[in-house]
Design goal:
Blueprint lengths: L8 H11 L18 H4 L11 E2 L4 E10 L1 E6 L5 E5 L4 E6 L2 E6 L5 E6 L5 E5 L4 E5 L6 E5 L4 E7 L5 E6 L8 E6 L6 E8 L2 E6 L5 E5 L4 E6 L4 E2 L4 E7 L2 E6 L5 E5 L3 E5 L5 E6 L3 E7 L5 E7 L4 E8 L3
């Protein structure tokens, strides 16, 4: 972590547990072997995705230079691309072949989304909060605090904000999704009993899909209105510590896990591996032309990349 971050000791212990396969249930011990070394990442922007395996017809390239433990990516309505750097406590914007800082001094930022007025929303795991960020000045305004360790964010059609969070890595069932009213800022527990929830989205029907990081990892669907984990339906299993989750625009979704792969589950429940043998994928986004952007987290304290996969239909 960057020295300029002021992270509570409890969070530092949590991060250490997550980065140490001997303390994080289900994390494969060979994930780092598929990632590039820091030295090779720092030699400037790489255009290919060395070592990656892709589904037939797809190609992959790296956008910009190295990133400090990137966790999420957001494409705003004007086409700008933003990434959270958990390792440097920053939000950066892709500017040509490099990244420029938009906001700094954040406490382990993860989830990133744009709201209707063009501001960014960021979830800070270390600050246990969700804040608005002015894209011009980088100034932050608290939207909701005391939420637990916040991971990813989602919005529904009404503009309500959903934040995944958890209190600790055990015992099971301490995670939840909180709904935040964009006008009153009232925060209400929406889905409870989850095992370290991470990526999430709300579909057109109002159903909530949320990924659980802690083994046995899964993707769950909550009916509109939310509820307890017992009322949800498991829609995907066989995953290894999930971070990113993104709707595919055709009734299915993309999901990335610590096995170093991104899978696409289609509306008919069939699935395929889109890309494999990369560092741990984090948040994802789709460009206007259908390309898939992946924040390749790799690991705590490591350098990652922003990947673009093209050729998807």
């Amino acid at each position: 972590m960057s020295p300029r971050l002021s992270i509570p000791a409890s969070l530092l212990a949590l991060l250490a547990a997550c980065s140490d396969p001997s303390h994080a249930p289900g994390v494969p011990t060979d994930v780092g072997a598929v990632a590039l070394s820091d030295a090779s990442l720092d030699v400037g922007p790489l255009r290919a995705c060395p070592g990656a395996s892709l589904a037939p017809g797809l190609s992959c390239e790296v956008l910009g230079g190295a990133l400090a433990a990137p966790r999420d990516v957001c494409i705003t309505r004007d086409g700008a691309i933003y990434v959270t750097e958990m390792g440097d406590g920053a939000i950066v914007r892709l500017d040509g072949d490099r990244f420029v800082a938009v906001a700094t001094g954040l406490m382990a930022p993860i989830g990133l989304r744009e709201v209707t007025d063009g501001a960014l929303l960021v979830g800070e795991e270390g600050a246990r909060s969700v804040s608005r960020v002015d894209r011009t000045t980088g100034a932050r305004t608290l939207l909701a605090g005391d939420l637990g360790a916040v991971t990813y964010l989602a919005l529904d059609a009404s503009g309500a904000v959903y934040a995944s969070s958890f209190d600790n890595l055990g015992p099971f069932g301490t995670g939840r999704v909180t709904r935040i009213d964009p006008v009153t800022r009232e925060a209400t527990r929406y889905a409870t009993g989850l095992n370290v929830p991470e990526g999430l989205f709300v579909d057109a029907s109002g159903a909530l899909f949320v990924a659980e990081w802690q083994a046995p990892s899964s993707v769950r669907r909550f009916a509109p209105g939310g509820g307890t984990v017992g009322t949800s339906t498991v829609v995907t299993t066989g995953l290894s510590n999930v971070y990113g989750l993104l709707p595919d625009g055709a009734g299915g979704f993309f999901v990335g896990d610590h096995a170093g792969r991104v899978l696409r589950q289609r509306a008919d429940a069939t699935s395929e591996v889109v890309i494999d043998h990369i560092g741990r994928p984090g948040g994802m986004a789709r460009t206007a032309d259908g390309a898939l952007l992946i924040a390749e987290f790799v690991d705590f304290g490591a350098r990652g990349r922003l990947l673009r996969v093209t050729g998807l239909r």
